[in-house]
Amino acid sequence: MRKVVAGLALLGLALAGCGTDDGSDRAGSDERGDGKANSAGMSWAYDEILDEGSLSDVLANGADDVWAVGAVLSSTDPSSGESSGESSSDGFLLHRDGTRWQRQPMPAVLGDSVHQARLDGLGSGEFLLTASAQDTTTSRTAHWDGTEWTVLPELPGGGRVTEVKAFAADDIWVLATASRFQHWDGARWSAVTLPEGVTATSLDGVASDDLWAAGYRDTGDGTDGYEMQQPAAVHWDGEAWRRTDMPEYRYPDPVPAEPGASVARVLAFAADDVRAYGTHSFNHGEGEDEPEEEAVRLRWDGSRWSRAADARGDCAGRVPVARDGARGLFLDGNRYADGDGACTKIGRPRLPDEGGVRADSRQSLWLSAVEPVPGTDQVLGVGHVQVNQSGDPMDKTVIVSLTR
User: Fold this and answer.
1) pLDDT tens digit string along 347-360?
2) How far is it, in rounded angstroms, from Cα 187 to Cα 152?
3) Whose CA is closest to 388, among 347, 367, 360?
4) Which of 58-67, 216-225, 337-346 shows the highest mean pLDDT?
5) Which candidate, 147, 121, 13, places its Cα nearest to that of 58?
6) How far is CA 93 from the centre of its chain?
7) In this predicted structure, what is the pLDDT of residue 83?
8) Contact yes or no for 110/142 (Cβ under 8 A)
9) How far does CA 370 lie from the centroid of its chain?
10) Are 166 and 121 a contacting pair, CB within 8 Å?
11) How far apart are CA 172 and CA 295, in angstroms?
């Protein structure tokens, strides 16, 4: 499983911070001045620090073939972290050949489609680059075959791509807005109809005949005291999509207002190990003595779905963003769960006190994607460091690598 770059916001976990700190530090702080407290020797190191732009994804085909994609923001309010506009002509690619990063031009076939860009590998050095148009309502996809770019036709009926699962250049599945599924067979897009009543929010699989889509199914309007939605998953076996039964979630009496449970992320580790992550929640503020929200954790063992235990300690409620081989999982919030379930926090250094960064600044690392490098022990991440300091807050775009 490679990094996860979409959909986690539906869990109430900020996707933009899938590798974030849950706080910030101040230089000289006893608690986190070195950035490595509670990290069990595992820490991020800064490979590159950029003064402009943002990086949304990273893809590693090998140690000598790594790509990152991003765009330059035309106007940013550092205090809010929100962009008031992006320069669509300033999308860019970075490529590392094993020794250094070099900027590469975006494929001209995408035009101004450089927003919310993602990279999806196809094997043998080939990959897909998918990005939204400037209005973020439609997407375009380009295929890099190792030599040149070719563009895929736009999705019939339009729509913005939110999920991609590619097994080959002629076997690409995408999930678009409004839970619309499409499949590319190398020549054309074909609409895919899921079993009635299922709304999909996530897509993953281990083979072209072993694909999962998960989300929720509507079960009522809540007036009967039962949940309005329940988790749902459908499976593609190479011939048809079939719904599989998932456990239901219920709040005890008194039931809170508008309760519902859903899956926001499905991750396929193997044919007999598929995991679903979501939330059992309700409309807050409409009653007294409200219950706690509940993490939805489900697991497919090859024959049925059953409830699964949440991660322990500080890893509870967090979702995997990348798999560290057989050793463990990288989780959102800059946490790591090893094979025994032990939870540790990944440390990180402070930025150098230069380029406007002051020694008294408070800093937080936010990663948008994490990617293990095949055939190596290396793990890379892309994102930004939020620098909070009086009078001149700023962001610094970074590429990080893991130090074990």
Assistant:
1) 999 999 999 999 99
2) 9
3) 360
4) 58-67
5) 121
6) 19
7) 44
8) yes
9) 9
10) yes
11) 31
Among 58-72, 73-87, 244-258, 316-330, whose mean pLDDT is lowest? 73-87
Count of C-beta atoms within a 10 Å radius of residue 89: 13
- Give the integer Cα–Cα distance in Å for 184 and 191: 9
Tell me how far the alpha carbon of residue 388 is from its chain's centroid. 25
For residue 133, the model assigns a pLDDT of 79
| Neighbouring C-alpha atoms within 13 Å toward the C-beta of 373 | 19
Residue 82 in contact with residue 34, Cβ under 8 Å?
no
pLDDT at 14: 32
Q: In whole angstroms, how large is the CA radius of gyration of the chain?
A: 21
Distance from C-alpha of 160 to C-alpha of 180, rounded to nearest angstrom: 10
Side-chain half-sphere CA neighbours of 169 within 13 A: 15
Tell me how far apart the alpha carbons of residues 152 and 128 are, in angstroms, rounded to a whole number: 10
Q: Which long-range contacts (CB under 8 A, 24 or more apart) does 153-161 make?
A: 153/188, 153/189, 155/180, 155/182, 155/189, 156/182, 156/189, 156/191, 160/116, 160/132, 160/136, 161/130, 161/132
67: exposed, middle or buried (C-beta count within 10 Å: 0-12, 13-18, 19+)? Answer: buried
DSSP H/E element including 320: strand 320-324
